[in-house]
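> forwarded from #structure-qc
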């Protein structure tokens, strides 16, 4: 049993949401309209540029609205005019009010980048990497009033490599989630979709990242620092200060060496890496850095223009 094609309204904003919209647009189902956040100033120059979902929608001629407030009556009116059978949400960035959840005939479903009920919230991939998880995944769930608590339709898992960064993992989960989402939409259309409730007792929370979290605490164990470097890429980045300059750490590894030096002290300088003392007597190898206002570069290239001597220390400023 295939069922008729569904009319879909899509909610999403950043790049993570684009593969889902793209797969929906290429499926037998009809994307009647898109709801995305208003254009914002982005980047170092603070230029106002369209978010990736808006850019895709405009290029493919999909009707689009960008409301400042979802509770504005005009939003509900527009959704009803699209006559949706189903709503699909992927990283929209705001809580959708109950009055809108009730508009589509079959409610709304969401693509969430974690194995729910773990890591509910705004930064599931980043928080999983920071926590040192070795596995993550993507879940298709029903959108409920409480954040990321809805019944689950399907999930897919993937391992997290010891040196993988959040951006790589998130990109992969976006593609996996897009394919899985279309499978669930097909099942809803056929009347064969099955969902199960989450176990709230096993839930964890993944709050939004802040700039302040990027400052490295060198008293942490080397593994924890390495996980923060990976987890905070590409934003807000893990950083420290050396000789009065803010230095972003873009690639690190946990070193096998041990050290009696104070945390943050540069213990050894090798052609391709800096060995820095961390908490619990550990060391971390810094392989790539990004000076303020510059591109990321290998330590070898950085050292060519910034001589460093062993015993120098990273600090808060």
């Amino acid at each position: 049993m295939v069922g008729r094609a569904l009319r879909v309204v899509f909610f999403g904003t950043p790049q993570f949401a684009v593969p889902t919209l793209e797969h929906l647009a290429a499926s037998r189902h009809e994307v009647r309209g898109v709801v995305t956040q208003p254009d914002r100033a982005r980047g170092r120059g603070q230029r106002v540029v369209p978010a990736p979902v808006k850019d895709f929608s405009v290029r493919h001629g999909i009707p689009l609205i960008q409301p400042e407030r979802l509770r504005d009556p005009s939003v509900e009116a527009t959704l009803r005019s699209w006559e949706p059978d189903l709503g699909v949400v992927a990283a929209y960035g705001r809580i959708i009010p109950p009055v809108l959840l009730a508009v589509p005939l079959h409610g709304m479903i969401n693509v969430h980048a974690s194995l729910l009920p773990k890591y509910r919230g705004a930064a599931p991939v980043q928080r999983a990497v920071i926590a040192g998880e070795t596995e993550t995944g993507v879940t298709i769930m029903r959108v409920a009033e409480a954040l990321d608590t809805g019944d689950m339709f399907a999930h897919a898992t993937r391992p997290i490599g010891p040196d993988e960064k959040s951006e790589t993992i998130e990109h992969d989960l976006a593609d996996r989630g897009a394919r899985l989402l279309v499978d669930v939409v097909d099942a809803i259309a056929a009347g064969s979709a099955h969902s199960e409730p989450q176990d709230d007792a096993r839930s964890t929370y993944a709050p939004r990242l802040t700039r302040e979290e990027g400052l490295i605490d060198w008293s942490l164990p080397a593994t924890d620092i390495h996980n923060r470097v990976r987890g905070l890429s590409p934003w807000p980045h893990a950083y420290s200060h050396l000789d009065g300059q803010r230095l972003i750490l873009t690639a690190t590894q946990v070193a096998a060496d041990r050290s009696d030096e104070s945390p943050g002290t540069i213990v050894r300088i090798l052609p391709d890496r800096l060995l820095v003392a961390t908490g619990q007597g550990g060391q971390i190898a810094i392989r790539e850095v990004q000076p303020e206002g510059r591109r990321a570069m290998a330590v070898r290239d950085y050292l060519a223009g910034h001589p460093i001597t062993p015993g120098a220390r990273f600090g808060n400023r």
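QC bot note: Residues 10 and 21 are 7 Å apart (CA to CA). The chain has a mean pLDDT of 96.
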